[in-house]
Structure formats: structure tokens, C-alpha cells
Amino acid sequence: MVRSISVPVLARLALGGARVGIDRVDDAMIVLLAARRRLVSAVGPAKRATDAPLRDAGREERVHERARNLAARLRVPASSADHLIDTLITDACMQQAMHPGAKADGAGASANTHRQDQRRDRLLRLIPPPRRWRGALSLVPRAVLDTFAERALSTTLASSLQDDWLAPVQRRRVGIEVVDLGLSWVLEVDGERLRRSRGPAEAMVRGSATDLLLLTSRLEDADTLFFQRRLMLTGDVELGLTVRNLLDRLPWETLPLGVRIALHRAARGLRAARDAHATVV
Ligand SMILES: O=C(O)C(=O)C[C@]1(C(=O)O)C=C[C@@H](O)C=C1
Fold it and tell me: Which residues form the Chorismate mutase domain (predicted)?
């Protein structure tokens, strides 16, 4: 008589098998971390000999960017790649800042890091959350804000406009609402130009200043932000989905490096400030 194996038993076997695989991958990561640390230990003396600073923002940016590009090809969320690289860079900095005789990852080092984190969080909490900027923004003439937004978006999207990336939304009115700042614009792609439209939006992308900046700077991907409902789409569903797909595929690498670095710094600063505010109990 053939006895069939029950579904829970099969599921338990599958779970066990997957966990063995996960353990192997985790082991491989630690081996890779050890290899990275060996290379970093060669970087420290070379930087000291040339009087180069410990932190190199341009290099860190390139490290993040390489990781994000690879992550995009493997369908790994950009935010996960960013967190991983942040951890690796923090580890490299701790490793280089340590006294040569100190034990790696010793309790002293983590207590120090904790104190540094607390100090950094206190400073970050001095940055008011974007919703508190509303008062100051209301003093700026609306025409100035409109021109600024139009120019900033035109610059960010310049190469996409030239390369016809935005053809699917030609002549469609798409709105952007920065909820916490109480600002919104309706925009229209007109040939190779992006211009403000006076008509009502056919589809609207809504989000906080921080989340919209995280999207623009590619620190977080559209899929994650929409899935977590940190960004919302309203209005024409088909147009909304087209906009969402375009946001995911925009050729970010064609932006000038300076603009990318500025966007990353601003987005990281706002995200860190938001996290620091959120940790207050
Ligand atoms: O390349 C270096 O100079 C390093 O110290 C390594 C590293 C990294 O972890 O990738 C760490 C800190 C620097 O700011 C830049 C990069």
C-alpha cells in the first residue's frame, strides 16, 4: 500500500530545507565581509599616507550606486541594497578609526558608536519635520515656488524628455502633491518640455516631501513606496499605472553626478531626521 505524505510534513521539510540554504548564504556573507575587511585594512594606511580623509562622500556614493544598479537587475529593492551598503561602510569606518591594538567589534567600539548615534539623533531632531516648514513656505510667493518646482523637475527629467521616455504620458495632466508641505502641481509633457498645466490632474501622485525625495533620488523604489502606501495614486487608474512604471524605469544614471549626489544627501538627511524624530518616545 502506498502511503502519501501529508501536506504539513512536506511544508515542514520545505521550511527546513530553505533554512539550511539561508544559513549557507548567511555564512557566505560573513566570509565576504571578512574579505572586504581585509581590503579595507589596506585602504586605511594608504589614506593616512596620502593625508586623505577617512570618509570620502564621492566614493561612498559610487559604492551605493553600483549596489543599487546590481540590485535593480536582480529585482532587490533599492532600499535593502542601501541598508546593506550603509552597514558595510559603517563597519569599514569603525575598522579604520580604531586604535591598531583595539579588538575588532569590541564592546568599547559599539558603546562609542551608540553614543555617536545618540548625539547624531539629537542634532537631527533639530531639523524640523517638513510639515513645520509650511509656515515659512507660505511667506514665499507662490509664483516663485511654482517656477522652482518646474525648473527642478525639468532638470531632473531633462534626459528622459529628450530620449522620449515620457512619450506615454505626452499631453496628459499628471499631478504631484507634497502632502506635508501643502503644495501641489499639475504637470504636462509637451514635446521635449515639461510645463505646468492649469487644468485639473487626470492622475495624481501623493506623498510626503521625504518619500517623494527618496523616490526621486532612487534611495527607495516606487514599488516599495506604493506597496507600503507611503505614496498614493489617485484618478485615472491606467494613467496612474503608466506613471508608476515610468517612475521605476527612469534612467537615473543619465543625471549629472553632482545632481545625484545633492539629491542623495538631501534625501538621506530628511530620512535620517524623520527616523530620529520617530525614535522619540
Ligand atoms: O574606499 C575607502 O576609502 C574606504 O575607506 C572604504 C569605504 C567603504 O566601506 O566602501 C568606507 C569609507 C569611505 O568613506 C569610503 C568607502
Answer: 9-100
